Amino acid sequence: MLRFVLRRVLWVVPVVLVVAAITFALMHRAPGGPWDRVKPIPAATRANLDAKFGLDKPIWINPGALRAERDRGTVNPFVLGRAFADSQFLNYLGNLVLFDFGPSYQSRGTTTVQEIIGAKFPVSAKLGMVGLVFAVVVGIPLGVLAALRQRSWVDHLTLAVSTVGVAVPSFVIAIMLLIVLSRRFGVSPLRRPEEWDGLGRAYLLPGIVLGLGVLAVLVRLTRSSLLEVKRQDHVRTARAKGLAEGMVVRRHMLRNGLIPIVTVLGPAGAELITGSIIVETIFNVPGLGREFVDAIAARDYSMIMGTTLFYAALIALANVAVDVAYGYLDPRIRRA
Known about the structure:
By secondary structure, the protein is mainly alpha-helical. The chain contains 15 helices and no strands. The chain has helices at 2-10, 12-29, 43-53, 63-72, 77-85, 88-97, 113-148, 153-167, 170-185, 204-229, 233-240, 245-274, 277-282, 288-297, 301-329. Helix 7 packs antiparallel against helix 8. The protein is globular.
């Protein structure tokens, strides 16, 4: 089992490197830069800022070193290595190995990306946990109930509600809930900063909205998975032996039907915990999702890279957790 886990964890490294290269390329292809403001800054100030944050270096490779080699008619591997090493991307990867995401450009280097993630991520994580718990506690039992009461009014109602949950975007549900609740109950997305410190009522409404999409998927997936399992021979045999229905569902149906559910829960849980950009913006949640949006608007390269790689690592590790859960639920997968 340990070898199985190590193989999966090692795959996280190339995933993060590929995400880093793609994000770095797209980020620098986008128009504008971190010093572009409504009021232009002097050229000397821009040059000083570029030198301070290493933006005066070539993005991928030093063209001067390559031209010198071409003019000499030689190919010196050491010079070529220096040409690649003296670039923004390689310098960033070197700092990344040391878990240094660099300073935030928006703060002119007074705050590091790690400090911002450390301050904002707990809010997004708590919001995502509320959404995930809501989706699991409500979605899986509803899916089990719909499977056990197939073709009844409960089944039809559950399918209708889950279809709406899948089809309607979360931001539409969020806006509708805010309109209704603000008129009838005076609910407002404006919260005092201290309300986000603990785990209070401020997280309830955005957490429910965040978890509705996952809940709808879990309902349909649990229902279809259990419908397939309950027709298998070992379930009929368990019922023929006289086992109680609850025992049949728990021991013989749920465990065998959990693999597709675990497949969804891993990435969905990571996505919820890292924060929903739209829901955090609508409900004015001071989480990492809103910080990511602000970083994109400000072309804060280090913040964009740090947040994206943080998201990628979490989702990759969530997939590792899914693989480990597979190995626990079905030992045959460990040998694959």
